[in-house]
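Shall we go through a protein fold together, starting from nothing but its sequence? Label the sequence line and the structure token line clearly, so we can match residues to local backbone shapes. Would you write everything just below, so we can both look at the same thing?
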Amino acid sequence: ISACLVGSEMCIRDRLNVEQVADELGVHVETIRKWIREKQLNAVYLGRRGGYRIRRSALEEFLRKRETIQD
């Protein structure tokens, strides 16, 4: 899926699923789900079959907050 509304925050192609985020960070998918449940990582829930989608900007913000040395 590669849909994107011009000027919209809801760009589908900018959303990652739990498996993609886990793979990118090198952690287990349940770790990602735990972070979402604990409201550490923002995500949209699309139902049982759709699962969670994480905006790339939300992932970047999550990682920025976890940096040990900040600019």
In short: DSSP finds three helices and three strands in the chain. Residues 18 and 24 are 10 Å apart (CA to CA). Strands lie at 15-17, 44-45, 52-55. The chain has a mean pLDDT of 86.
